[in-house]
Amino acid sequence: MGEVKKRRDYEKELRDAGIRITRARKTILKILEEGEKHPDAMEIFRRASEIDASVSLSTVYRTMKILEDRGAIQRHVFEGGPSRFEPAGGTHHDHLIDTDTGEVVEFRSDKIEALQEEIARSLGYEIVSHRLELYVRKIGRRRG
C-alpha cells in the first residue's frame, strides 16, 4: 500500500532558490527526510524544536512554501484539517483520511484508475490530473 518516494535533495532546492541553509533549516530538512508521511507544519515545528530550540514556526512555513514552489514537496489540504506535506515526484496514489484520528493512508487501485478513465472518456474527456481523497472511519470504532 505505501509508496516508495524518490528522495529529493531539499538542501539543494533551497540553495538553488537563493536561501541560506541555517542550522534551523537543516533541522527542518532532517525532519522531512526522516520520512514521516504527511506531516503538518505544527508537527514539523514540534519535532524540529525538540532538536533545536532556535527553529521558529515562521521558518517552518517559509521553508515549506519555498520547497512547494520549487516542486520538491506537495501540499495537501484535507477536509477539516491543516495543510500536510509529502515529497513530490512519487508515483500517483490516492489517499484515505481517517476522520477520527487524522491518519492519512496512501493507496493505489488499478480498478479505480481504469474506472475514472472510462468515465472521463465516455463523457468525451481525457484525464489531465486528478486527486482522490476518501474520508473514512475504522469499522467498529465507537465514536465518543
What does this structure look like?
By secondary structure, the protein is of the alpha+beta class. Strand 1 and strand 2 form a beta hairpin. Helices cover about 40% and strands about 15% of the residues. It starts with 9 loop residues before the first helix and ends in an 8-residue tail after the last strand. A 3-stranded mixed sheet has the order 4-3-5, with no helix packed on it. It has a two-stranded antiparallel sheet with strand order 1-2. It is flat and about 55 Å long.
Q: Cα distance, first to last residue?
A: 29 Å
Strand count, sense and barrel status of the largest sheet are: 3 strands, mixed
Helix content, binned percent = 25-40%
The overall pLDDT, averaged over residues, is: 88
**Order of strands in the sheet with the most strands?**
4-3-5
Total number of beta strands: 5
What's the shape? flat
Computed Rg: 18 Å
Broad structural category? alpha+beta
Task: Provide keyphrases for this structure.
144 residues, alpha+beta, 3-stranded mixed beta sheet, two-stranded antiparallel ribbon, flat, disordered N terminus
Secondary-structure blueprint:
Elements: H1 10-16, H2 23-33, H3 41-51, H4 57-69, E1 73-77, E2 83-87, E3 94-98, E4 104-107, H5 110-122, E5 133-136
Parallel strand pairs: 3-5
Antiparallel strand pairs: 1-2, 3-4
